[in-house]
Write a structure and sequence with these properties.
The structure is a homodimer. By secondary structure, chain A is α/β, with parallel strands linked by helices. Helices cover 44% and strands 16% of the residues of chain A. Chain A folds into 3 domains: 44 residues, lambda repressor-like DNA-binding domains (434 Repressor (Amino-terminal Domain), Orthogonal Bundle); 126 residues, Response regulator (Rossmann fold, 3-Layer(aba) Sandwich); 127 residues, Response regulator (Rossmann fold, 3-Layer(aba) Sandwich). In chain A, strands 2-1-3-4-5-11 form a 6-stranded parallel beta sheet. Chain A has a 5-stranded parallel beta sheet with strand order 7-6-8-9-10, with helices on both faces. The longest helix of chain A has 18 residues. Chains A and B meet through helix 4, helix 5, strand 2 and helix 6 of A and helix 4, helix 5, strand 2 and helix 6 of B. The structure holds a DNA duplex.
Chain lengths: 344, 344
DNA sequence: TCGAGGTTTCGAAGCGCTTCGACGATGCGC
DNA sequence: GCGCATCGTCGAAGCGCTTCGAAACCTCGA
């Protein structure tokens, strides 16, 4: 509640000297600075936020736009909002949370009122209304996720295509010959979630390139049951599964396979790729290439802050390379020695 | 980007007239107001946030303090932050998200810089450092959750005691005679999570009052396995289970009981109480008295806004009555007709 | 000793808005 | 028709800070 004027008086200098001493934007004699700092410390001075904003044309606030779709995985998405907030703090920025309907309108509002210096757009759809809005706003914006039309945008995301290719190659190189992908529910794809489609396309392409038999299924409920059945219908010799799906489906996979008398990795290898949940607590943890909220948000917020502070930022797509975490759910299969299988 | 001066010029009135026309704080002739409104609309005028804050001594921002403990259920907690944000918007407030280490320090900062008009404190521990801080801050604050020392505080929470009593009574009244409570992990209790203890104490007290045999167990992992075993050790005739625990433990309960040859509700009735996850997708959905983020946050934010706008608010504890959602996991047991049980 | 050039500090002008006090206009009662 | 209360509007004073331009002060070489 102390004002800069009180600090100035206590230090025996002018207001502007205090301002420069604290901001470091002009050189101040060392002993003067020390006196100012001591006075500020003593009085517990913190600059009045709105006064600073008004005078400096900078709010030190970043808006985080997080719509919540019906089929959204709350935990996963809020992790992104939280990580963004943490990273923003390391740059001295606070975050304004814009959720739900307000994810769109709040962007307009916080940009127009200059409440926010920049915007982080989370949970991006292929055909996202916030893309057009961002273009019209004249407020630095970074997308975490890649929409269909990225013209003029700054986007950050895990390299899902590379993750899909790496998963396929890992299985192929360790001797797997029939690979299935359990993707997301079709509603999720229909809604336009972009990474899901990118992953799927890359998976198929890579399997074709490696000449390996493959199939793709979409869960229709919240378990892996139906998906596994359909996978075996398509590929009776299925020996590897790639998961790019939700936590509930993934967590039921082990039990589903067990019910068929199959076990991981003895009979079937499993890799989870581009997923934002941990499989550490599963009966059998899976090899994982995680969609890491921290990594994505760090990259995004760093870019955003750079755009705000540095003034401007060229449009670009930043793809983060996937990290492979080995948990032992993939083993080498020797050709000619098919795994022993109980009849289910 | 239009300023109030431009609106004033466009409408042919003074700046103050525009301000009063838009805020309604003084009477303005109808045709004048209409002209002002039209001009504002035309120019897409929105008041510059920091200028408004500075002049009006009000930021229209609420800080949401959300620490994230190691054993925190991310999804559950972020739901509270989100609901708070939604409710705040209905009052014209935006929310600043303070997470992690910054949950505490951010409170101090946003209050001292007058960035926030008020604070919502989430995920409250019994012995929460934010209690003392809130008392020292001179910034309206509402706690969602009840710490040990509530002196001078405004707190909102589900009435966990009442939920525990209602769960016990529901089971007792439908003929159950041996009731077990699966509580949270001991780490959670040790950490000081308050509602967990309140629930446990009320459960025991009510069982004693109703003269019904009872036992309490704490899961040690993330499944119900061990808990169920210990419950049956203590109560061989167990016929009712109350869950006040985490989603992973709850979701594994059905399978655990099935492995013993028991089914819900045929052999055992189950009620989940004071939990923030849905059991709708479980193999057998449970009767539930939810810890409803929306209800709690609505009450909390409403109180907070009232304190900000209305100026001041008397300390109080608001306990929200639990709602019983019947999903068929509790049935009536007739004395003398013990349920048929397979040997496991 | 004087002045150029550099360093340090200060004063004042905003930033865009809210709000107080005041002023002119209007309506009313007598 | 005059005085007074009421209504509608305006001007101006801030809110607390940043930042520009300039003043004040130093240092040093000529």
């Amino acid at each position: 509640m102390a004002t800069i004027a009180e600090v100035a008086q206590a230090a025996g200098v002018s207001i502007s000297t205090v301002s420069y001493a604290l901001s470091g934007k002009r050189s101040i004699r060392t002993d003067t600075r020390d006196r100012v700092l001591a006075a500020a410390q003593e009085l517990g001075y913190l600059p009045h936020a709105s006064a600073r904003m008004l005078a400096a044309h900078r709010s030190h606030i970043i808006a985080v736009s997080e719509p919540v779709h019906a089929d959204t995985d709350d935990a996963a998405h809020m992790a992104f909002a939280m990580e963004s907030t943490k990273v923003a703090r390391t740059h001295g920025y606070d975050t304004l949370l814009l959720v739900d309907d307000d994810a769109l309108d709040g962007m307009r509002r916080s940009a127009a009122t200059q409440l926010a210096d920049g915007i982080v757009v989370l949970d991006v759809d292929e055909d996202d209304a916030r893309v057009a809005l961002a273009r019209s706003l004249d407020c630095p914006t970074v997308f975490v996720g890649i929409p269909a039309d990225t013209e003029g945008l700054v986007c950050v995301d895990l390299d899902f295509e590379e993750a899909a290719r790496a998963a396929v190659d890992r299985l192929v190189q360790s001797g797997h010959r029939e690979i299935g992908l359990i993707s997301h529910r079709v509603e999720t794809l229909d809604r336009g979630s972009n990474f899901t489609r990118r992953f799927l396309r890359a998976f198929v392409a890579q399997c074709e390139r490696r000449h390996v038999r493959h199939a793709v299924v979409h869960p229709n409920g919240h378990t892996a049951q139906g998906s596994v059945n359909r996978l075996f219908d398509a590929l009776p010799g299925l020996d590897g599964i790639v998961l790019n799906t939700t936590a509930d489906v993934a967590s039921s996979l082990s039990a589903t396979l067990t019910a068929r008398g199959l076990s991981i990795p003895r009979d079937i290898s499993v890799i989870a790729a581009g997923v934002s949940f941990s499989t550490a607590r599963f009966a059998v943890p899976f090899d994982t290439m995680p969609l890491d909220a921290r990594a994505s948000c760090t990259a995004a917020v760093d870019l955003l802050v750079q755009a705000i502070d540095g003034g401007g930022l060229d449009p670009r797509i930043v793809l983060l390379p996937p990290t492979y975490i080995d948990q032992g759910s993939v083993v080498t299969r020797t050709p000619g020695y098919p795994p022993l299988r109980r009849v289910s």
